[in-house]
C-alpha cells in the first residue's frame, strides 16, 4: 500500500522535505491534495479527531497518521530501513533535522516576523530588521553548524557514503536559500564547502534526478516559505 502525503498543493513548503525523501527512496505515495485540491486537505484535517496533526504536512500509512516534518521523516526512515541502524546516531540525525525545522521557521519569519496571518506588505519594516539579523547572524551560525556536522564523515553525506533524510532536507534548504537570497548566497559561496558538495551530490541520487526532471517538482514562489523579495536580500 502506498503512503498518503497531505500538503498544500501550490507551494513546495515543508511538504517538499517529505516529498524529496520519498522520491529519493523511490517509495510509492499519493500526493493527495495535489490530486484533490486544498479544500480536500482542509476537510480531511478537520474531520480528524483527538491527537491529530496540527498542520500539514502529514503522512498516512494505514492506521498511522503523523504530522511534523521531522517526525514524518523519522518514521519513514525507520519503516524503510533508511536510518543508520543505531539509536544514538539516529537521534543525532533527528537533532539535525529539527535544527533544519528551526531554520525553516526563521526563514519564514524573515518575511512574516509579526504574524503569519498578516500580509508581508503589512509587516515590511519589521521584516527588514528580521532579515538583516538573519543575514548577518542567524544564517551563518546555522550554516557553520551544518557544515561542521558534515566534516570528516568519509563521504558527502551525514552518514558518509549513505544518504539520509538530513541530506535530502539540507539540499532542499540550500535550494530554497539560493532562491530567496541569491545575493547573500553568492556572497557566502565558498564558505561552506561540505554543504556545497552535498548540494551538488543529491541530484545524482537516481530517484531525485528523476523527480527534479518531472512535473511533480514545484517551483519556489512568493506564497511559500522561501520567497524572493529583493529588499530582504542584501549581501
Ligand atoms: N512544525 C511543523 C510546522 C507545520 C506548519 O507550520 N505547516 C504550515 C504549512 S508549511 C501550515 O499549514 N500551518 C498552518 C498553521 O500554522 O495554522 C512542521 O515542521 O511540520
From TrEMBL:
The organism of origin for this protein: Alteraurantiacibacter aquimixticola
InterPro entries with a match to the protein in the record: Glutathione-S-Trfase_C-like, Glutathione-S-Trfase_C_sf, Glutathione_S-Trfase_N, GST_C, GST_superfamily, Thioredoxin-like_sf
Top-rank taxon: Bacteria
Listed GO MF terms: glutathione transferase activity
GO annotation, biological process: glutathione metabolic process
Record PROSITE patterns: GST_CTER, GST_NTER
Keywords: Transferase
Domain GST C-terminal: 90-220
Domain GST N-terminal: 1-84
PANTHER family registered for this protein in UniProt: GLUTATHIONE S-TRANSFERASE (PTHR11571:SF263)
Glycoprotein found in the keyword field: no
Pfam families, per the entry: GST_C_3
Protein name stated in the entry: Glutathione S-transferase
